[in-house]
Write a structure and sequence with these properties.
This protein has 349 residues and is an alpha/beta fold. The chain is built from 13 helices and 14 strands.
Length: 349
């Protein structure tokens, strides 16, 4: 492959006229090393608005800044995974910088992430971000921005999705090629999570630069809202079973005797459901109940699972408690047990 391009900025576009100008302006405003050869690779996926005209207007400005600009389009729209794959296929960069058309890069992004990815070519390199509007998804933003380096590969089955958000991904082309690109099933497919899990399964690593690299827009037209919660749940559950529960042959405890803990129990394959030693909780009402009876089970007698105080429960734990919602008390309770994450417990909240 021609290696005359250092970085390809990968931008899938579908009817993004409301945000595309700001997105492309943020590309033009990057403060990377001027010796780096940067390419902007855009695939217009069935756009019927003014996205193409906006792109044509900015292409001249980008070329004047020294960027190579490559654009292609197709109809009908096939979805974001397909669009990303087409944009990558037509690009030449040794490294790929993924950018959604509704987001805005900070000026430091290319510089700081390129330096990190060049040092760790087997990694997906993410970055911190801010939400716009600022008060949207506060818990999620705090979680993603505050994860420790270890937790980037430990907390991968939580409900939040990849531990580094896809619009901040920066990686070598070798990482992309090894995974084999994004799932192209289209609308409703969490192509970023599928790619992320495949990357981890192939021995890939995850890193995050300390810099704030992106303004991540929150709006009702975002692709995220087309993905059903059950689809994400099924992917998370499969990974939880394969990487943790299958190996916990002596049994495990589900931390949360409420709605989420019981949903996990009911979702488990029969052989793993039989390994659930107990639910644990701190809620006096649940503890007084003493036992959970799986009424919908076809087994006779119906399965009965004890409900115990967390301090009396047996590790390892699958934790189905939402972080940051108990005023810090859950975190204190967990810390009091002196457990090691991924060995003694896994977060599934």
């Amino acid at each position: 492959m021609d290696q005359e391009v250092d970085i390809s900025i990968i931008i899938p576009v579908h009817n993004a006229e409301r945000w595309l100008a700001a997105c492309l302006q943020s590309v033009a405003d990057q403060d990377q090393d001027p010796s780096l050869r940067v390419e902007v690779s855009v695939y217009l996926d069935g756009s019927t608005d003014q996205s193409a005209a906006i792109l044509e207007h900015f292409s001249c400005q980008l070329r004047q800044k020294g960027y190579t600009v490559v654009v292609s389009s197709g109809t009908p729209a096939h979805g974001v995974g397909y669009a990303k794959n087409r944009a990558v296929a037509q690009s030449l960069g040794s490294f790929l910088c993924f950018l959604d058309a509704d987001d805005v890069m900070r000026p430091c992004r290319l510089r700081c992430q390129y330096e990190e990815a060049a040092k760790f070519p087997d990694a997906i390199v993410g970055g911190r971000f801010v939400r716009e509007p600022a008060d949207s998804t506060e818990r999620y933003t705090r979680w993603a921005n505050q994860l420790s380096p270890r937790q980037l590969t430990q907390q991968v089955v939580t409900s939040h999705g990849p531990t580094v958000i896809m619009p901040t991904w920066f990686c070598s082309r070798a990482v992309f090629d090894r995974v084999g690109g994004f799932d192209e099933s289209g609308r409703g497919t969490p192509e970023d999570l599928i790619f992320f899990y495949r990357h981890l399964d192939l021995g890939g690593t995850v890193r995050r630069v300390p810099d704030e690299v992106l303004v991540y827009r929150y709006h009702p037209d975002a692709v995220t809202f087309t993905i059903h919660e059950d689809t994400i749940w099924a992917l998370r559950l499969e990974r939880l079973c394969r990487h943790w529960l299958d190996g916990w042959t002596a049994g495990f405890t589900i931390w949360n005797a409420g709605k989420q803990g019981r949903k996990l129990y009911r979702s488990l394959p029969d052989e793993l459901r039989d390994r659930v030693l107990a639910f644990c909780d701190v809620d006096e009402r649940k503890l007084h109940q003493g036992v959970y009876i799986y009424e919908n089970s076809e087994l006779r007698p119906k399965p009965r699972v004890p409900i115990v105080h967390f301090s009396k429960a047996q590790k390892p734990f699958v934790i189905c408690v939402k972080m940051d919602l108990t005023g810090g008390q859950f975190e204190k309770n967990l810390a009091s047990l002196g457990l090691e994450e991924t060995k003694d417990y896994v977060m599934f909240s």
